[in-house]
Write a sequence for this structure.
């Protein structure tokens, strides 16, 4: 009997100790989250609104920050750019991009100049907020050839299934995930669908990164309404937890690159200075380049969706060329060469790259973008 009493007392003591420790940890976590949102009021800079967030989700912040004026905390409700200048996560990525990754980020900004005018136009036509045009900075570094380990491809990093769902052609001859214009139209429609599905841009962006299925399942299973509760769930990867802060940091720099040490960025020629011409099936890009007197590599860069150096064998296809060359190409269209049966067969037999399965040791948080 004495041994049983001793055992029960020890068990009770251990349970009380564990409970206290959990309470302390929860309190520290809550404090960290609040500081992450609120920061120091004197450092807050207000940025263009991106998203409306449900005020009820932050009721605890309101009640525990009564000494702050209403103006100091309204940005939490009104914008995903929550006090970015004093947000430690955003500050971390701003520092990372302008110091450790400065050379690479500069390359991304240079590439962005080629595509931003056409992306901005498409997003405006679809009623999307202008900050979202910078999303490719953290997705692909604005590289049409970017390919992740999971085989997400292009500027917008579409998986094959999602790409086809939104009308992009992906096969042995064409991968329209690499087409800047067509993939942007698909991305605009996908982002609008995600916003309609989740009701806010913060959830929509998390779903864009992790998949709408995962975010939706966690919301339904837990009953969480707060974005930050959902992305803190144990089944959410670190990449998704950091996705919005990385996006905010990249957007802030991209809007005012000189303020962060990115001076004299020479942007690539813009895509809007080109024209599309419909050409016959099997046409080789080499013959097109010769007909309009440009380098074949330059033509391939304007048409990254076209694989194997020739057009699909089953249908006419549009080729993007410099505007001033359009009349010349149309005049020589009957002179263009076509791929032979050996080239077409080789394309059919070419194996597609497979999704890489990573071990925990091989996962690196800043290596999502590949081949950029």
């Amino acid at each position: 009997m004495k041994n049983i009493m001793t055992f029960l007392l020890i068990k009770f003591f251990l349970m009380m100790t564990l409970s206290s420790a959990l309470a302390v940890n929860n309190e520290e976590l809550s404090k960290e989250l609040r500081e992450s949102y609120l920061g120091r009021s004197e450092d807050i800079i207000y940025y263009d609104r991106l998203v409306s967030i449900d005020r009820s989700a932050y009721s605890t912040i309101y009640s525990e920050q009564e000494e702050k004026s209403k103006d100091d905390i309204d940005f939490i409700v009104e914008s995903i750019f929550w006090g970015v200048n004093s947000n430690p996560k955003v500050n971390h990525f701003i520092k990372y991009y302008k110091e450790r990754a400065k050379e690479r980020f500069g390359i991304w900004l240079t590439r962005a100049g080629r595509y931003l005018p056409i992306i901005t136009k498409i997003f405006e036509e679809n009623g999307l907020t202008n900050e979202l045009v910078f999303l490719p900075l953290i997705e692909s570094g604005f590289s049409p050839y970017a390919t992740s380990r999971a085989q997400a491809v292009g500027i917008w990093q579409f998986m094959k299934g999602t790409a086809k769902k939104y009308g992009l052609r992906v096969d042995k001859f064409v991968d329209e995930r690499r087409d800047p214009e067509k993939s942007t139209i698909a991305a605009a429609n996908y982002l609008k669908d995600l916003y309609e599905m989740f009701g806010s841009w913060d959830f929509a962006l998390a779903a864009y990164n992790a998949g709408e299925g995962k975010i939706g399942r966690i919301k339904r299973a837990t009953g969480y309404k707060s974005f930050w509760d959902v992305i803190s769930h144990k089944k959410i990867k670190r990449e998704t937890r950091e996705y919005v802060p990385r996006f905010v940091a990249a957007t802030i720099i991209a809007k005012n690159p000189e303020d962060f040490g990115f001076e004299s960025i020479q942007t690539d020629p813009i895509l809007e200075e080109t024209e599309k011409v419909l050409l016959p099936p099997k046409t080789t890009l080499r013959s097109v380049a010769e007909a309009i007197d440009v380098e074949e590599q330059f033509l391939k860069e304007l048409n990254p969706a076209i694989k194997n150096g020739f057009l699909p064998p089953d249908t006419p296809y549009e080729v993007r060329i410099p505007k001033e060359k359009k009349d010349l190409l149309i005049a020589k269209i009957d002179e263009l060469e076509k791929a032979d049966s050996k080239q077409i067969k080789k394309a059919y037999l070419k194996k597609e790259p497979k999704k890489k399965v990573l071990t925990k040791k091989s996962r690196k948080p800043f290596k999502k973008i590949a081949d950029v």
